[in-house]
Amino acid sequence: MSSVATAPADSLTTARQALKRFYGYDNFRPMQGDIIQSILGGHDTIVLMPTGGGKSVCFQIPAVVSQGVCVVVSPLIALMKDQVEALKANGIPAAYLNSSVTQTESQDVGRAALSGHLKLLYVSPEKLVGEGFLQFLKRVNISLFAIDEAHCISSWGHDFRPEYTQLGTLRQHFPSTPIIALTATADRLTQRDIRTQLNLHDPRVFLSSFDRPNINLLVRPGQDRLNGILDFIGRRPTEAGIIYCLSRKTCETVAQKLQQKGIKAGHYHAGMTPNQRGSVQEKFLQDDLQVIVATIAFGMGIDKSNVRWVIHYNLPKNIEGYYQEIGRAGRDGAPATALLFYSFADVMQMREMVTKDVPPRQAQLNQAKLERMQQFAEAASCRRRILLHYFSEDLGHDCGNCDICRNPPTTFDGILLAQKALSASVRTQQRVSINLLIDILRGMRNQAVLSHGYDQIKTYGAGQDLPYLDWYSYVHQMLNDGLFYIAYEEGYSLKITERGQQVLKGQLPVMLKKFQPTEKAEKQTRATKKAAAEAAAATGSPEARLFERLRQLRKTIADEQGMPPYVVFSDATLQEMAREQPTSRVAMLAVSGVGMKKFETYGEAFIKAIIQHGPPRPVPALDDTPAVPPFTDDEPLGPPAPRATAPKAPASERDVNGTEETTFQLHRQGLSPEQIAEQRGLTVSTIKSHLERGYAKGLDLRLQDFLSDSDLAEIAAARAQLGGAPGLRDLFDHLREKYDYFQLRLAGVKAQRQGR
Ligand code: ADP
Ligand code: ZN
């Protein structure tokens, strides 16, 4: 880790001003400021920060405040496009070049780069190292190189990309341009590879905390996981999420089961054509699909900041993978959930997979990593501490935001047990692996023990009163507690940490937990129910209702502009708007995530929506139905509420009304929603929402296009049977999915108009 760079002190002030102006954020996150100063000081820099930690800002701000173009190397085409779009939405000139870009476009980009009009240029590694391109770059004024996902350079890692290894030549071609390498992988070997392979010159290394405190960590037993998932999603009807499965087949069947329950779900795996995958991904980004059921092939190219939850249907094969996958939830910093289903059968299946057809050394490594994953799943102590220990970090306290923290298991004073294990390790010069250590403690007389003379050491047999499995659990708890770590590159030997030394000297207490796998299941279910009840309670609050309204406005705008909703504003920003209810320019600009450009583009529309929503008011009885999605969101579905007192709509709000009117004009001309969508270049679901909303406001709709009289009668009968004001989802199920939500909503509006 490095001290502050030698950049002029006021460069940080300039950087902070740019952060506010372009991103709307008031402060740098921990480390961002130091990293930016290091780069502005001209130093090669390595940034190790978790997914969602805010790496992009670290090179984008230096790019913005420096002369010239920052060249960003990024491995995935989809990611480039999204990042460039997000930059432009913030008013920062950016472009990308990869195999998907046409020759003409590419020439335009080239000219913009030469003329100094670009601030950031994203390129794929293949593109970058092509001889012609390097020559071209030499004519460009380059401020710095940013190598994103830099762990791809390491063959140790799980995402090794051969193209990355050629990036080493950058240093020769551009000896004096600073290089910044960024990754969410923190392990020592990867770090070393990045430094050497990129030929970094005495780089400053910034290792940020890998904690993602906003992600609630849950593990549930693997029985009946499908119903568990339905239950989970049912409580989060509008929140986007990803379900990771091991096999393609499972992805498909799970997605299908969700669809049958009326959930907008799609599947994604490597067995699909690029077109199919692209279209599923696009719909997910656009919030047209709520759920993606995917193999781990999905996600690396996804920057979607409003993924609110991640479920692991199967046990991941190691903690790196797990952590990276759950890191895709809650990137905007707002609360998010990670749920892992765990059964021992999963471990067996996974063990087979990770050891089959690989060299013995690799198999051993894979298996050891899988065991750490298993220990995490079986843990009886704060799960976040375990994760962070894995990345050599100590939180210093329990997190309070995992299932174990909420329902602590029984513990006992484990100092004697721990000291036996630590001392046995010391007496083997810290050379033995877990299994051998346990054998020594239990006084076994096998080849491994005898050949090293471990039967002669003082702690030999000191733990023979405990069965193997108990020791296995306790040693893993010690690992999880940060008393030991495993040196993979030294035959998996257990090494004692600083903390371990303190325990050995009796300076730190150790609590161990009795290992009771079955009892735990019960408790966790209860914990989840409690969390769900809290979530349900929150849904009815005025703030939640305003959030929902803003979310819909965001969706409408995003569809019109053909960009993902989270690029318009993040969930975190919308939540702050819902809480603070800004109705002036100054108040709106004070919201985190509202920069100048976004204020100019969207500010008025959102202020207008907030004013129209009015001050917090009691929730009408109608809204209490926990419907999915509700009949009665806060757009009035009956005749339009009197709005005489509302101020005259500013331009962008008129746009929102205007777009509905355009849709209605086409509707009146006899066009179907599909035709209107085609003609207007919008999605069908947007057109349908225009029709619904317009109809609810009292516009003329040819209802018979969508519902016959007998349809209406059938739906009315079903509503009556369900007690008059049923949830949409209940109605949908009751009618055995005969009508889609659009039809059911229209029928609902009609019923309301007739005063039911
Ligand atoms: P990473 O690349 O490390 O996964 P990103 O750069 O995508 O993370 O940042 C994650 C989210 O955090 C983005 O929505 C980003 O706008 C936001 N963010 C970054 N820096 C800040 C900051 N200083 N204040 C508030 N939000 C920030
Ligand atoms: Zn915890």
From TrEMBL:
Catalytic activity: Couples ATP hydrolysis with the unwinding of duplex DNA by translocating in the 3'-5' direction
Domain spans labelled Helicase ATP-binding: 36-204
Cofactor(s), names only, from the UniProt record: Mg(2+); Zn(2+)
Record domain HRDC: where: 540-620
Entry GO terms, CC: bacterial nucleoid; cytoplasm; replisome
Gene3D superfamilies on file: HRDC domain, P-loop containing nucleotide triphosphate hydrolases, Winged helix-like DNA-binding domain superfamily/Winged helix DNA-binding domain
MF terms in GO: 3'-5' DNA helicase activity; ATP binding; DNA binding; four-way junction helicase activity; hydrolase activity; metal ion binding
SUPFAM superfamilies assigned to the protein according to its UniProt record, in alphabetical order: HRDC-like, P-loop containing nucleoside triphosphate hydrolases, Winged helix' DNA-binding domain
InterPro entries in alphabetical order: DEAD/DEAH_box_helicase_dom, DNA_helicase_ATP-dep_RecQ, DNA_helicase_ATP-dep_RecQ_bac, Helicase_ATP-bd, Helicase_C-like, Helicase_HTH, HRDC-like_sf, HRDC_dom
NCBIfam families registered for this protein in UniProt: recQ, recQ_fam
Name of the protein in its database record: DNA helicase RecQ
Annotated source species: Hymenobacter polaris
